[in-house]
Amino acid sequence: MKPVPPNQQRALVDRLVQACGGAYSPDVRRKYFISGPQWAASYQGQALFHAPTRSAIGFEDVIREYGKIGIGYWCTHDSDVIPAEQLGRDGQCEIVARIQKSLADHGLKCSMVTTETFFHEVFAAGPAAESPEIREYAAYRVRNTVDIGHELGAQFAVYWPGSLGYYTQGAIDETQSLRWYADALNAACERDIEVAKKKNRPTLKHCLEAKPFEPQAEILLPTSDAMLAFIGSGLLRHPEMVGLNPEYLHELMWGGAPRAALARALLAGKLWHFDINDGYRLKHDVDIGVGLVNPLDWLNVLVLLRAHNYAGPFNLDYKPPRTTSNYGVFAVSFPSAVDRFITLWEMAGEVREDAIVREATEALKAGSGVAAGADGKAIADANKELLTLHELIAHRLVQILLGLHRGRQYFA
Ligand code: 3MF
Ligand code: MG
Ligand code: MG
């Protein structure tokens, strides 16, 4: 193939996107509760060991491009859009008004706001550091985010504690740090009750997001299960206002099964918000687009969520790779992530309707009918052939994923 000069590369990308097919229209995409974070689209490719590969873009561009793609919801950290020194000051009102206008102009809604408590130097020792003024500042930031959320019409507030933990052991008392972290959440919930009353709006759903490692060495609340225990610990004054925002990759990172983590959150009635992405077990937070690494697992996750009528947001918390250009972020990365999600969601519907999966599942639940009181060996023998259906179901799921159930065959 001949070299492709720079001025022909976008046309090539566009032509190959078209050739891929399988794209949904913006109107179809808008029917899903899919949210696009400000930080995901504006990520410039910088990280530890990495220089940026993309130029900066602001919320006006991000919201406009999400609108064109058909991503119906937008979310942000406070400091993604408002410089830290302007938070809570006049500059904030002006920026919030500009955000409201952009959202209205492009037909998006703000679904969620979140407080950055991990990037600014003030959080070097975490949001629940010993110094009372750092903790008061953290409480101020989460209260202010609640205000922004109500101004923008959000339904959710998310908290990823980030650096709640330590690099070197012995300097902090973990129980004390957790009490202090609870104080910040209590401050947010109490502000929320006040503002919601004043504005005659429902209170926000406050969702905790766990991550097992990064950017702290040892993390006090590393998993969604740890978060559930924290919610039930008695430290929160309004535990009914606090639920979970599990992230698919964060559960995978510690070696857990995301689907099982989601199931535990569902049982606790706390699965309120969900960060969707992909990656690998026991690696750093690679934040790959949904379904690019573990499509089969993703299919199964969505089967579970459909079975339990999950109706919260699917938040595209991934990072377009550093090899994707500014143009590619909106021409390839976001639309393809949304379309993979919708395809997997539809396939999950097919799995639930599939006659083979249904009959096999029902048969497993019916058991053999062996007489009550039979011994273990007799029960095992009576169920032997039925249990083969586990593998058959797995085969059927792969058939559905690969389209083989529609009759596609390979010939040697
Ligand atoms: C970090 C994350 C965060 C959180 C965000 C919301 C930058 O790995 O996943 O995204 O989702 O801070 O609270
Ligand atoms: Mg993450
Ligand atoms: Mg996340």
Summarize the SSE layout with pairings.
Elements: H1 6-20, H2 26-30, E1 34-37, H3 38-42, H4 59-69, E2 73-77, H5 78-81, H6 90-106, E3 109-114, H7 132-152, E4 156-159, E5 165-166, H8 174-199, E6 205-208, E7 218-219, H9 224-231, E8 242-244, H10 248-253, H11 258-267, E9 274-275, H12 295-307, E10 314-315, H13 326-353, H14 355-366, H15 376-387, H16 389-402
Parallel strand pairs: 1-2, 1-10, 2-3, 3-4, 4-6, 6-8, 9-10
Antiparallel strand pairs: 5-7
This protein binds 3-O-methylfructose in linear form and magnesium ion (MG) (2 copies).
What does this structure look like?
The protein is of the alpha/beta class and 412 residues long. Helices cover 50% and strands 8% of the residues. It is built from 16 helices and 10 strands. It has helices spanning 6-20, 26-30, 38-42, 59-69, 78-81, 90-106, 132-152, 174-199, 224-231, 248-253, 258-267, 295-307, 326-353, 355-366, 376-387, 389-402, and strands spanning 34-37, 73-77, 109-114, 156-159, 165-166, 205-208, 218-219, 242-244, 274-275, 314-315. An 8-stranded parallel beta sheet has the order 8-6-4-3-2-1-10-9. It has a two-stranded antiparallel sheet with strand order 5-7. Strand 9 (274-275), helix 12 (295-307) and strand 10 form a beta-alpha-beta unit. Helix 4 (59-69) runs parallel beside helix 6. The radius of gyration is 23 Å and the shape is globular. The protein binds 3-O-methylfructose in linear form and magnesium ion (2 copies). Residues 160, 209, 247, 275, 317 line the site of one magnesium ion. The site of one magnesium ion has 5 residues, from loops.
